[in-house]
């Protein structure tokens, strides 16, 4: 990979002026300061390895856009890792405990409702599903979701409201078909 001198100077200048801001950005969102340092390095690596040849006009804005994507990828990797660490024995134990506490017909109804809700979520448009899951399951505020998804708070509200209506309609329709 060859980099011309003007690009090298631009990246070097951006690194000197923006690196500490990127580290702060990641530290404010992560528990581990080592991860913040690593992810900040990843941002510059991605910039250096980008395939586009068009020049970047606002390097700071571009770097923070990359940082948002790096952060989302980091969270997704951690979620997958956490899910895979749950052992089958833990799931079996929880399932057995729940079943011993409730009536079998209630358990079946609950499982069917969860399945219908999962189906409803699968049929949502990807951005709407992402906003809804971040809000309902990850517990992020609407402003945090707007920042992460790079959309307005108003758009986040519309996504969440539309997702709720969609899920309710799907559950009502599927409930009538049982």
Question: How is the topology of this model organized?
Answer:
Blueprint: H1 5-27, H2 33-48, H3 59-85, H4 88-101, H5 104-122, H6 126-136, H7 142-149, H8 153-176
Helix pairs in contact: 1-2, 1-3, 2-3, 5-8, 6-7, 6-8, 7-8
Provide structural commentary.
This protein has 178 residues and is an all-alpha fold. The protein has 2 domains: 1-83, no CATH class; 124-177, Arc Repressor Mutant, subunit A (Orthogonal Bundle), CATH 1.10.10. Helix content is 80%, strand content 0%. It contains 8 helices and no strands. Helix 6 (126-136) packs antiparallel against helix 7 (142-149) and helix 6 (126-136) crosses helix 8. The radius of gyration is 22 Å and the shape is elongated. The N and C termini lie far apart (60 Å). The model has no long low-confidence stretch (mean pLDDT 77). Residues 115-167 form the RNA polymerase sigma factor 70 region 4 type domain. Keywords: Sigma factor, Transcription, Transcription regulation. It comes from Providencia huaxiensis. Residues 15-80 form the RNA polymerase sigma-70 region domain. GO terms for molecular function: DNA binding; sigma factor activity.
> Number of helical runs?
8
Radius of gyration: 22 Å
Total count of strands: 0
**Share of helix among residues?**
over 70%
Average pLDDT: 77
Number of domains: 2
Low-confidence stretches: none
User: The biggest beta sheet, please?
Assistant: none
Helix and strand sequence = HHHHHHHH
Outline: elongated
End-to-end gap: 60 Å
Class by helix and strand content?
mainly alpha
Bin the strand percentage: under 5%
